[in-house]
Write a structure and sequence with these properties.
Layout lengths: L2 H19 L3 H6 L3 H16 L4 E6 L5 E6 L7 H9 L7 E5 L11 E4 L2 E4 L4 E7 L2 E8 L7 H15 L1 H6 L1 E8 L9 E2 L3 H13 L4
Parallel strand pairs: 2-3, 7-8
Antiparallel strand pairs: 1-2, 4-5, 6-7, 6-9
Length: 209
């Protein structure tokens, strides 16, 4: 049996498991052991398709839930996310997303820098257009590029602002600097990064008819 057929079978098995347990999501959510239960039931068969894939579970208003299939920012796994999503079933009370979605209420988010809580609204950005694409520069209070945890933060921030797909596929490069070392005159709050990036991307890549 070739690899494509094996992968197709694994995807079908994954969705069969999700379908069988979709009505149990409220139990998983309310249980103290919901995280372990969730990963055991859903994440294990997903990782048989591609070990880089992961799932995220969210609760919506009412008794509805959402599942996000993510490549965890690893571009090589994007095609598997697309293939899994293409075969998704329609299930009552369950919304299925491919790739982590942009977070709409960024003002409500905080990050921890040097044991200090920093609001997303205090982080600024600048877009730099190069021939090869668009660079996003983040100006984060207290950021230190030689601290590995801070380097990880910049990817979490750009992911939250733009969503996983655009952060990987549309951004040429993401850099981060300490806000205290720069003048904020030409910078803007990252709460509007998504709108500004979409505008710049469309302007750069739209074809003139």
């Amino acid at each position: 049996m070739n690899n494509d057929k094996v992968k197709t079978q694994l995807i079908q098995q994954f969705w069969n498991i999700v379908s069988q347990h979709s009505k149990d999501l409220s139990i998983l959510w309310d249980s103290n052991k919901r995280i372990n239960a969730f990963f055991n039931v859903f994440n294990k068969p997903l990782k048989k398709i591609n070990e880089n894939l992961t799932l995220e579970l969210g609760r919506l208003e009412g008794n509805s839930y959402e599942i996000t299939i993510s490549a965890d920012g690893i571009e090589e796994a994007f095609s598997d996310v697309e293939e899994i999503y293409k075969q998704k079933p329609e299930l009552d009370g369950l919304i299925i997303h491919k790739f982590r979605q942009p977070i709409l209420n960024l003002n409500e988010l905080l990050i921890n820098i040097n044991d200090t809580k920093v609001s997303y609204s205090d982080i600024l950005f600048e877009l730099i257009e190069e021939k090869e694409g668009i660079i996003v520069v983040l100006f984060i209070p207290g950021f230190q590029e030689d601290v590995p945890e801070h380097e990880t933060l910049k990817f979490l921030i750009i992911d939250a602002c733009l969503g996983e797909y655009d952060a990987v596929k549309k951004v040429l490069y993401c850099d981060a600097l300490n806000l205290e070392d720069y003048s904020p005159k030409i910078m803007k709050s990252i709460t509007i990064l998504r709108q500004e990036f979409e505008k710049a991307y469309k302007s750069k890549y739209s074809k003139v008819v």
